Amino acid sequence: MIDNGIGGAVLTESHGLCGLDERLRGLRGLLSIDSPAGGPTNVGAHIPLAETLPGSIVVS
Fold first, then answer.
1. What pLDDT shows up at residue 40?
2. How many C-beta atoms surround the C-beta of residue 9 within 10 A?
3. Residue 27 backbone dihedrals phi, psi, to 5 degrees
4. Residues 55, 53: Cα–Cα separation, whole Å
5. Would you list the DSSP string of 7-56?
6. What is the pLDDT of residue 52?
7. Which residues make Cβ contacts (< 8 Å) with residue 11, sequence separation at least 6?
């Protein structure tokens, strides 16, 4: 996701991006944030998929 803001987004305890990061880590994932001063902010979520995990959904 890319916005048109002023940049400077950071992970701050008890705020939105930190909550997303915690949830993604619970899925063994990664939150990537690129937010230079002056913008724009680019946020990505990377969630690993594995066929061997119990309860995983595998699409053929």
1. 93
2. 20
3. -100, 15
4. 6
5. ------TTSHHHHHHHHHHHTT-EEEEE--TT---EEEEE----TTSTT-
6. 57
7. 17, 18, 21, 31, 33
Q: Decide: 17 and 43 in contact? Cβ < 8 Å.
A: yes
- Per the structure block, which two tokens stand in for 27? 């899925």
Tens-digit pLDDT profile for residues 5-57? 899 998 888 888 999 999 999 999 999 999 999 999 999 999 988 655 566 66
The token pair at 8 is: 């400077």
Residue keyed to tokens 């066929």: 51
Task: Supply 22's token pair.
Answer: 């915690």
pLDDT computed for residue 4 by the predictor: 87
**Model pLDDT, residue 51:** 59
